[in-house]
Amino acid sequence: MQLDIQSVFFTGTGMSFVFLCLSVFTWLKGRGRVAGLDYWFLGFGFFLIGMVLIVIRRFIPEWISIVFGNTAIFIGLSFKIIGLLHYLQQYNKRILGYLLIYNAVHITLLIWLLFLPDGLKYRMITISLYNVMFGVLGTWLLLAKAPKDLRSHTIVATVFYGSYAALYIFRTIRSFSWNRGNDWLASNDSVESLIIGLVIILLGGVAVGEMLLVHGKLELMLIETAKRLNETNRNLEEEIVHRTIIERELQSSNKELASTQKEIMKTLAEVVEFRSKETALHVARVSEYSRIIANGLGCDSDFVSLLVDAAPMHDLGKIAIPDEILNKQGLLTESERILIQGHTLVGYNLLKNSDRPLLKMAATIALEHHEQWDGKGYPMKKSGTEISLPGRIVCLCDVFDALAVDRPYKHAWTTDHILEYIREQQGKIFDPDLVDIFFKHIDEILSVIKSPLGSYHN
Looking at the domain that runs over 253-454, which CATH code has it been given? Predict the structure, then answer.
């Protein structure tokens, strides 16, 4: 079967568009967290432009197709290398200068070779040598400069870069004996067609390799985050154990031990509030609101007592959030927003292993206090009565207090504005029955604001 170079290039142009789309997906997945993705995307963009200029050679002046088509491909491959250098944190301005000189030399050669009678053979050699550089440099960077922790994720990209270099070394050698005329597209050389087809496949492999590189970098970032969280957990557990040991030495009864446990939880809650530039009175007020609503529902005294003591722990997971993110006054990035939302899971994981009823309820509240009645909350997107009663109560109380309080980065809402908002969100964010109880006891709830617990309110 005779392969047609023009057809192979036409197919390759379509595949290049697919690779560009894959590069967009890779960019979206790692933007803002992984360096080099913009250059990889631009690389496939210029490569696609070059392919199009070569495919339409029959409809434009040949010298435009040859010079500008190959120049676009050269620029695209250069962007690929620059992106890889950024990804591996090896980029410097001198390298950009070397690439500019290398591109200028090859483009100048292409233009000069247009005027030679048998210039096609030497253009093929020039273009092949450029591509050899791309493959060899990419392979060397991945083998010599990739961190050890990333080696397992660089295998695919390394194989495709290396294969790309080997294929163009073969084409360079073969080009020295080229005798099929001076019209490359019309030559219908089956080996050339096969080489171009393999090049397209290898570039697809490079696109997949880039996606795996991004996945590897993100995986390492998650591992590092997990290590920091584990270290925080260990430190917190050690502190809790240390406090418990001290209290056991001082106290001799279960009643005193339970009291100490409550004090530790209150202290931890106050630490979290202090780090987020809120007053320690916030958790006390949330407890009081929770007591009022639970009593209004007719809950038994044991449940109410547990709820009041567990409610202050709702934001315990924020202890693992860096201060610069926790107290950021501007808009959060997507990754920062995800990290902030993760405080629900962190708090739950810190508390879930205890068999004590108080800590079990605190774990549930920490996990669910940002769930919403309509299922649009986080982290589990629970809805309705799938959310525990303590979680639904603290959700309402936490939002109310957050809106009612003057904080460094915002003014408190007026009471009318807050009550209007809570009515609007009845059956959306909040349990509709709890909202009814809230308004039934609104005077009692507002009295908390006027008490010493509200001394930091506007």
Answer: 1.10.3210.10
